[in-house]
Amino acid sequence: MTAIPKTIKAGFDPNAARADFEIFAKPVYGKPLVYLDSAASAQKPRQVLDAMRDFASSEYANVHRGVHYLSAASTDRYEAARRTVQKFLNAKHEDEIVFTKGGTEAINLVSYSYLALRIQPGDEIVLSVMEHHSNIVPWHFLRERQGAVLRWVDVRNDGSLDIEALDAAIGPKTKLVAITHMSNVLGTVTPLKEIVARAHAKGVPVLADGAQGAVHESVDVQALDIDFYTITGHKLYGPTGIGALYGKRKHLKAMRPFNGGGEMIREVTRENVTYADPPARFEAGTPPIIESVGLAAAIDYMNSFDRASVHAHEQDLLTYAREAVREFNWLRVIGDAPGKGAILSFETDGMHAHDVATILDREGVAVRAGHHCAQPLMERFGVASTSRASFAMYNTRADVDALIAALAKARKILS
Amino acid sequence: MTAIPKTIKAGFDPNAARADFEIFAKPVYGKPLVYLDSAASAQKPRQVLDAMRDFASSEYANVHRGVHYLSAASTDRYEAARRTVQKFLNAKHEDEIVFTKGGTEAINLVSYSYLALRIQPGDEIVLSVMEHHSNIVPWHFLRERQGAVLRWVDVRNDGSLDIEALDAAIGPKTKLVAITHMSNVLGTVTPLKEIVARAHAKGVPVLADGAQGAVHESVDVQALDIDFYTITGHKLYGPTGIGALYGKRKHLKAMRPFNGGGEMIREVTRENVTYADPPARFEAGTPPIIESVGLAAAIDYMNSFDRASVHAHEQDLLTYAREAVREFNWLRVIGDAPGKGAILSFETDGMHAHDVATILDREGVAVRAGHHCAQPLMERFGVASTSRASFAMYNTRADVDALIAALAKARKILS
Amino acid sequence: MDDSLRELYQDVILDHSRHPRHFGPLEGATNTAEGHNPLCGDRVKSNLIVDANDRIADITFEGKGCAISQASASMMTDMVVGRSVAEAEKLMGGFLHLVKGEEATDLAGDDREQLDVMAGVSAFPMRVKCATLAWHTMKSALEGGDGAAKSE
Amino acid sequence: MDDSLRELYQDVILDHSRHPRHFGPLEGATNTAEGHNPLCGDRVKSNLIVDANDRIADITFEGKGCAISQASASMMTDMVVGRSVAEAEKLMGGFLHLVKGEEATDLAGDDREQLDVMAGVSAFPMRVKCATLAWHTMKSALEGGDGAAKSE
Ligand SMILES: Cc1ncc(COP(=O)(O)O)c(C=O)c1O
Ligand SMILES: Cc1ncc(COP(=O)(O)O)c(C=O)c1O
Questions:
Q1: Does the residue A3 lie in any domain?
Q2: Which residues of chain A have pLDDT under 50?
Q3: Is the beta carbon of A285 within 6 A of some atom in ligand 2?
Q4: D126/B413 touch (CB, cutoff 8 Å), yes or no
Q5: Is residue A32 domain-shared with residue A95, that is, in the same domain?
Q6: pLDDT exceeds cutoff 70 at C148
Q7: Which of B38, B41, B99, B104 to mutate to test the pocket of ligand 2 (most atoms within 8 A of CB)?
Q8: How far is CA D68 from the centre of its chain?
Q9: How far apart are CA A208 and CA A204, in angstroms?
Q10: Based on the domain organization, do A271 and A317 belong to the same domain?
């Protein structure tokens, strides 16, 4: 059922990868599944699902809490997963990796445990208009609760970040720059290294939301010298229920706990409580153990391919799709920044994104329609919603062809 | 490899259930696994693991966010899981169930989003000395951060709750009673209905930590008239990374958000943010979707047996073990409250719990040794740690026999 | 082409969505409410003039949305104007049944016929919210809504 | 019986744990620190008198713990007393290798022989922390520790 793409990039065969994803074996409305919604959540290869199931049925117990065999085995796997994430992001120390339940929680952790303690009324947080709500609402909390001021940095019409505007927005009251590594709507990849350099020059730390960036770009937190970087498992071809925060050791050590409970304490008495060192301090309760094994398997899976070739493949799909939609004069692409990742958002004249998505769906083509949890960006571009096709390693040019054909059909039905 | 228990309770065959748990197929140090650490985390039946894997490989996509087929299927499963939890706890409305990442987060959610807004310096929180750290530290936060006062209710020497002492502790400044449904160390089951009645008589709401209670007791939040009840998936034979908070609708509606991000908003602008209704308000970001399916499968699995018979079976194991350890005059059981659940904690003269656990482990017997995240309770009984054997539906009398034999061996080695 | 799609995007519906009736603000409105579809962020506003006899003397709607929600809003305003509040609410009950694919025994005659063009929505569970948004918003307005009706 | 268990709970170890040497407070201590095993909540306190020549003139330990941690603390105090701080730290390095089952080339002669009874711990990864707690605490005391050494 999988069509052969017209070009196979050296070093990566998308069809071989695709065969690892069982979901493509099941038709949708009798048609092959054309899954172009990986930016919302990626599908999971059998390697990930098997790793989780095998672990859960042969080595599972609670971690850090027992001396018995399964507890030791489980703890080993959990801590090995932490090292896998450490290497994936090239963090210097393994204790700089905190497991969370997802990308959103990782950002909230920084908001609650780091920034909340440093905000006086009038202090500023700099963020871009293309942030996902997960990198907006935690800062709105600090506005609502502590009088922080959000300073918004615009993007240019092509969706690229205006680095000079960002620089200008960082002032003496700025306490944090919170910026996406890659926009989930525009595909824009931000120049993190440059951003960090500019912010650090003014003594301001930087958090990057890597929910999308870590999927499509190589990340080296040491080379970036970034303060915080967040990832989420389910977009990395891994399970739901897990993500991670990278934080520089000096920051994590200075942060107060977030959730309170088992494992994050040193000692609890009736009168008092003292806290464990990072990362345990931020991992209250039973962590997502099985999910950590799944996340590690997902990273291993990604690393089993030449990532540059995967990237080239995704870029090929993007370019191919970008060219193909030029034939539709009723379609306007939003986001054409140089070097952008494999996400194509567009507006369709006189056709609401939801209607488009419904028609595409019946052709087996899954795209996302809506505000993509990025309402300030929608406002910036004067739209209420867009349609979005996002590409992952398992997509092929045949998927793009199906998208284009389905779009033509939608046009026919709706106009 | 599974021995036949001497009595099989009418209506429940533990060996049949045991066959569903693949982990027992794998020996530990060449010996059959005797898993007596289910109070830390339960093993998962194939029905749960299969449900998750099947779902992830055939119906998975992100929830609530797309109009396409997989997104609809995934959302249906996620919301069906919510209804499964609703029925499991007999909640009146499905929007009274909030999915969390575990039991600990569920309690923290109440601390951050409910109680933090209602605490003035000097206000009191009533809790028992047998609470798990997860039902202590979130309240210590309110002490540290807002000047709340923790009022501790003692247990009697047999481990039972002193309801009169609890009643006496509830005063005009009490803002919440936070109490376990079942102690993870003593096995004590608390009279929740009575507690709620007494607290409500003084206008005070009650939160019950049901991490253990929901596993071994039937829960009916409406009959209890309880305000908050928390559960965790991994102890309910379900996956890690998921739990739930039950909260009365009127409370949830009055609570502020906890984490900020996607899905929990009504509208986000640069200047402002408005929030969604419960439960979405408290489910920021991509939720544990695959885990919700696993939790629902676990509840379905539990319900596939006559729960009263399962309870009777566990009680049989407890009684059998309780009687057997009487032969060891160097062993002191901690917790003998009437009606207690199937957990046996004990101290061993001149033998540290960790040494005992290590020796038991080499016999294939997994028990937990330590403070069990209940340090105030350890202090109450004047011990630094205990050994704990906890029983689940898949245990048999043969497991108890193995425990007893291993204990005798530990004694021989260590004395 | 997929029959259910043809059914969903009938000419009547596309026509309503392109040329919505009763669209725009309403001078002298006695009841208004805003509705919001959390799925796409679309909002609709419902404005009514309810007279002393509990009759909907006039109604309009505002806001942008997909073809389904616009058509539904347009048809709704067409149908409820001139009716009593009780009748409008009864009609809504029938409509909800219809788009959810349930028995709509309370819909009869002309009403049934007119609304039947929306029945195709029932094959698209994710779109039911689009179809019901305007109705929920009207209901919320009639109840002296808090301005935040949600589609269900 | 399991050989590795026999190896772990040798008579020497059980004897040390039942009758720990150098147990109790230390009058005139120049360096002290507390260590904590997060796994079981056990704590140990290390008290030293370091003289002007950087020699460990005296050392004691306090606290309760499992047989492994008590025996390890007892043997440690026995062995480091009278040595220079540098020697003690070198010994610790060797000991850490030993209990983790790594090559302990830096341990020789008598030291090796004495510490060898602890080598059985390496078969019990979850118990390595118990064996190293006292050593980490001593190190922390020597470094003017913050009172919160953690076993690794
Ligand atoms: C850019 C971006 N940031 C943050 C998130 C939130 O991650 P999660 O849904 O895992 O919490 C997402 C995805 O939803 C995203 O695309
Ligand atoms: C009584 C009790 N409460 C709360 C918890 C915490 O639950 P979780 O580990 O799922 O966060 C546990 C288990 O660790 C427990 O036994």
A1: no
A2: 1-9
A3: yes
A4: no
A5: no
A6: no
A7: B104
A8: 10
A9: 13
A10: no
Regarding the beta carbon of B232 and ligand 2, being less than 6 Å apart is answered yes
Q: Which ligand is nearest to the CA of A283?
A: 2
Strand partners, B374: none
Gyration radius (Cα) of chain B, Å = 22
- Looking from the CA of residue A209, the nearest atom of ligand 1 is 3
Q: From ligand 2's centre to the CA of B207, what distance in Å?
A: 14
Mean pLDDT rounded to a whole number for chain A: 96
Residues A69 and A200 in one domain: yes
Domain that holds residue A331: 14-39+306-414
Assign residue C96 the CATH number of its domain: 3.90.1010.10
Q: What is the pLDDT of residues A87-133, one digit of tens each?
A: 999 999 999 999 999 999 999 999 999 999 999 999 999 999 999 99
Q: Is the pLDDT of residue D145 over 70?
A: no
> Residue D68: which domain range?
3-145
Q: Is the CB of A233 under 6 A from ligand 1?
A: no
Residue C136 lies in a domain: yes
The residue out of B271, B303, B335 marking a domain boundary is B303
Q: What is the DSSP secondary structure assignment for residue A385, as one 8-state letter?
A: -
Query: With the CA atoms of C53, C54, C55 and C58 taken in that order, what torsion angle do they form, in degrees rounded to the nearest 10?
Result: 120
Q: Give the pair of three-digit tokens for residue D33.
A: 């620190």
Residue-wise pLDDT tens digits, A185-201: 999 999 999 999 999 99
Give the start-end residues of each E strand in A254-308.
265-268, 273-275
Inter-chain touch D40–B378, beta carbons under 8 Å: no
Q: Please give the pLDDT value at position D6.
A: 87
Show which of B249, B282, B303 is a domain's final residue. Answer: B303
On whether residue C150 sits in a domain, the answer given is: no
Are both A298 and A328 inside the same structural domain?
Answer: no
Report the number of distinct structural domains present in chain D: 1
Using 70 as the pLDDT threshold, list the residues of chain B that sit under it: 1-10
**Residue D38: per-residue pLDDT:** 73
Flag whether A66 is in a domain.
Answer: yes
The reply to whether D151 falls in a domain is: no
Q: Name the percent of chain C lying above pLDDT 90.
A: 72
* 3-state DSSP assignment of residue A408: helix
Residue nearest to atom 7 of ligand 1 (CA): A103
Given B3, B137, B254, B373, which residue is catalytic? B373
Query: Ligand 1 centre from A134 Cα, in Å?
Result: 6
pLDDT attached to residue A397: 98
Spatial separation of the C-alpha atoms in residues B250 and B244, rounded to whole Å: 17
A187 lines ligand 1 (CB under 6 A): no
Per this entry, what is the length of chain D? 152
DSSP letter (8 states) at residue C2:
-
pLDDT value of position B1: 36
* Dist. CA A261–CA A244, nearest whole Å: 19
What CATH number does the domain containing B320 carry? 3.90.1150.10
**Closest approach of A73 to chain D, Cα-based (Å):** 10
From B78, B101, B259, B286, mutation site for ligand 1 pocket: most ligand atoms within 8 A of C-beta: B286
Please tell me the number of the ligand nearest to residue B131's CA.
2
**C126·B67 Cβ contact <8 A:** yes
CA dist., res. A385 & res. B356, Å (int): 62
- Whether A74 sits among the annotated catalytic residues: the reply is no
CA–centroid distance, residue B313 to ligand 2 (Å): 23
Residue C129 · residue C151 · CB < 8 Å? yes
ipTM of the complex: 0.94
Amino acid letter, D137: T
Which of B331, B321, B317 has its CA nearest to residue B383?
B331
Single-letter code of the amino acid located at A7: T
Q: What's the domain count of chain A?
A: 2
Among candidates A211, A265, A199, which has minimal Cα distance to A238? A211
- Decide whether any atom of ligand 2 lies within 6 Å of the B239 Cβ: no
pLDDT of residue A11: 87
Answer yes or no: is pLDDT of C1 > 90.
no
Looking at the domain assignment, is residue B239 inside a domain? yes
Which residue in A has a C-alpha nearest to residue B274's C-alpha?
A137
